Amino acid sequence: MTAPADAAPIFLVHADDDKTVAPLDHSIRLYDAWKKAGISAEMHIYSRGGHGFGMRKRDLPIDTWTDRLRDWLGVQGLLRH
To answer: Quick one: DSSP state of residue 76?
Structure first.
């Protein structure tokens, strides 16, 4: 897998127990491709969350993924204050 030359920074969130989307190694390869191309990439892997966890709260660590996204967007300079 190779990142396009004009690829934007990427933020990935993956639930390891997702049975719908490709295995975790596909997300890892995507992350690695961005890093090898020198493009900003961040990935968070949660053990539980299933497929389509979205923004609903279920008392799982994955519930905070939107906080991680907000932090990342701030570091990227993509948030207005």
So the answer is: T
**Predicted TM-score (pTM) of this structure:** 0.88
Whether 9 and 40 have beta carbons less than 8 Å apart is answered as yes
Per-domain residue ranges for the chain? Answer: 10-76
Residue whose C-alpha is closest to residue 30's, from 45, 18, 50: 45
pLDDT tens-digit readout, 52-79: 888 889 999 999 999 999 999 999 999 9
Specify the residue for token string 């968070």. 44
Residue 54 main-chain phi, psi, to 5 deg: 50, -140
Whole-angstrom CA distances from 28 to 25, 36, 40, 46, 71 are 5, 12, 14, 13, 21
